[in-house]
Amino acid sequence: MTLSPETEVLFDSHRGHQYNSANPPLYDSSTFHQRILGGATKYDYARSGNPNRQLLEEKLARLEGGTHAFAFASGIAAITAVFLSLKSGDHVILPDDVYGGTFRLTRQILNRFNIHFTIVDTTDIKNIQRAIRPEARLLYLETPSNPKFKITNIRLATELAHRHHIDVAVDNTFMTPLGQSPLQLGADIVIHSATKFLSGHSDLIAGAVIVNRNDLAEQLYLLQNGTGTALSAQDSWTLAKHLKTLPVRYNQSVANAHKVVQFLEQHPAVSEVYYPGNSDLHLSQARHGGAVLGFRLQDETRAQAFVDALTLPLVSVSLGGVETILSHPATMSHAAIPQEIREARQITWGLFRLSVGLEDPTELIADLNHALKEGCDD
Ligand SMILES: *Cc1c(COP(=O)(O)O)cnc(C)c1O
């Protein structure tokens, strides 16, 4: 019987591990015995490959509908590998609200290697069209973006890019493989910060790249092994275990997020709510709106009073944990952006991002309601 990807991530006991244990053993070894000199062994050195990382990568490839997956020591290491498949002189098109760490990587590190980046608002395909140079090799997308949750049409952008022989990479961290499948929409490369929903327990840093082309897979393996940025056996083992509950965790978070969105949209202390589920374009390429949303307080000066009055959410960077995580873009993810640019992009003091977790939504909403009262009444 063929299992769905969601069910397949649950199964380990049928994979022929010794003793048929419910979970695979952790192969905590940097090196492997090679008694036949020059003979072929499946594994020789753990940077180049180890059973725990391979098992994880097989699960990630199945989940995302790709042929090959590569696990990295962080989301940024995964993104770096994708960019390092380029060469000096190549041109890349990036979205204007790309993840801050990706912006830093391109602006402060990769620009030293004569790789050129053009930053555009990718939500308008005409902007992408205008940015394409003869040396363009990669269109990099993030949809939904954050903290404003702007949506780019993956199908249209990919058709345009492919007409110019440009590969398309999509950072799919916010939607997970369950919410959106960029490879099926035509994209060539899918990237995840597995630190977020894929791991889900706020206990490790990891990243992944998934592709369905052999030439890209060969490049990515060369980069993963050759630059030594692969995920450790220990973290691969933990992440593979956390993946088993991804479907239940994520689906519950999405259901809870819908309730929180409905609540915030009618609350007088909230002036705006940003949620991908409110976009027809997003829903034409994704299965639902996901579990992360943005909102702005009517009285932006009350942001600290609002936070002070909250009990449940973890107030921090990151997202996708079992616990609800409230982030303050102006002082956290987007703090490095100069204030004028931040304000022009409406990343103001009263803007919050909420990654909805697994708490009882009634309790979470009661907590938010209480804090919003504190945050608006004098
Ligand atoms: C967190 C994040 C990253 C970076 O991942 P790390 O695991 O922190 O290196 C990249 N893209 C998005 C959208 C993220 O949220």
From TrEMBL:
Cofactor(s) the protein requires to work: pyridoxal 5'-phosphate
Name of this chain's protein: cysteine-S-conjugate beta-lyase
Similarity comment: family membership: Belongs to the trans-sulfuration enzymes family.
Keywords, sorted A to Z: Amino-acid biosynthesis, Lyase, Methionine biosynthesis, Pyridoxal phosphate
MF term (GO), any: pyridoxal phosphate binding
Gene Ontology cellular component terms for the protein in this record: cytoplasm
Enzyme type, top EC level: lyase
Keyword Lyase found: yes
N6-(pyridoxal phosphate)lysine: residues bearing it: K196
GO biological process: methionine biosynthetic process; transsulfuration
Pfam family, one: Cys_Met_Meta_PP
EC number of the protein: 4.4.1.13
PROSITE patterns documented for this protein: CYS_MET_METAB_PP
